[in-house]
Amino acid sequence: MNSRSLAILAAKKAGIYLLKEFERNSKNFALKSSHEIVTRADKSAEKIILSLLKKHSHNSRILSEESGLYDFNTNWLWVVDPLDGTTNFRVHNPLFSVSIALYHQDKPMLGVVYAPYLNELFVAERGKGATLNGKRIKVSGTNELRKSFLTYCYGTHPKHMRMAVELYKYFKMKSVDMRQMGSAAIELAWVAAGRTESIVIPGTHPWDAAAGVLLVTEAGGKVTDFKGKLWRFVDKNTHKIDLSVNLLATNGKIHSKILQHLR
């Protein structure tokens, strides 16, 4: 099984499980057990994905949100978020997803984001473009900030939350709108599909964005850190992993306008 087929299979199997769990517990999300539901769903979805990757992709390194790093002596790295949008899932908001990426050293080679409730499968391969349910997608052509729809997310550190609040205050009045959708993987996919123009994430975690960044770039967009440098979480020399990297992804047309403020 090739890597593309493997990632799609894993994402869909995990997504189908999550959707069943989501619908089965639809009436219980206001109860104190809702956190346990999310934890169980996270772990079970991860188990589905990791079992497939370990079976069909021998000795590749695997970085997963729930279990951390399975480290082998190889330049290939799978990056997995079994349930991106856990808070959405917990309160029965259907914007949640499965995100799976494959990197070679510091370069993204494959990205898959599956939103099971929406039945939307986003796939990107390095040099081969990006698709939504098999059809090619591309970023929007909007080149004015005031006509742009922006989204944002943030890492877990309080400083990232404070930065996100400041960014929201600044860009909310300078764009069509700025919103937090609650799933960075979906938000990156939406930039790739031309639904939104940008997402900005202070302190993003690799598993949230690893697949989405390739979707954006293969759809014609641009992804950098807040200094305008190529976004990467793997050091190309040491192969060490940075678990918190600022990220700006746009359609490329408004990138410099947003970057100007971030700097």
Question: What are the salient characteristics of this protein?
Answer:
36% helix; 5-stranded mixed β-sheet; Fructose-1,6-Bisphosphatase, Chain A, domain 1; 8-stranded mixed β-sheet; single chain; globular; D-Maltodextrin-Binding Protein, domain 2; alpha+beta; 263 residues; 2 domains
What features would you describe in this structure?
By secondary structure, the protein is α+β, with helices and mostly antiparallel strands. The protein folds into two domains: 3-136, Fructose-1,6-Bisphosphatase, Chain A, domain 1, CATH 3.30.540; 145-262, D-Maltodextrin-Binding Protein, domain 2 (3-Layer(aba) Sandwich). It is built from seven helices and 13 strands. The chain has helices at residues 3-24, 34-56, 86-90, 158-172, 184-192, 206-218, 255-262, and strands at 61-64, 68-70, 76-84, 97-104, 107-115, 120-125, 129-132, 135-136, 149-152, 177-179, 198-204, 222-224, 245-250. The strands form two sheets. It has an eight-stranded mixed β-sheet with strand order 2-1-3-4-5-6-7-8, sandwiched between helices. Strand 9 (149-152), helix 4 and strand 10 form a beta-alpha-beta unit. Helix 1 (3-24) runs antiparallel to helix 2 (34-56) and helix 5 (184-192) runs parallel beside helix 6. The longest helix is centred in the first third of the chain and has 23 residues, at 34-56. It starts with a helix and ends with a helix. Mean pLDDT is 91; it is low at 29-33.
Helix/strand/pairing category: alpha+beta
CATH topology of the largest domain: Fructose-1,6-Bisphosphatase, Chain A, domain 1
CATH architecture of the largest domain: 2-Layer Sandwich
Mean pLDDT: 91
* CATH level-1 class of the largest domain: Alpha Beta
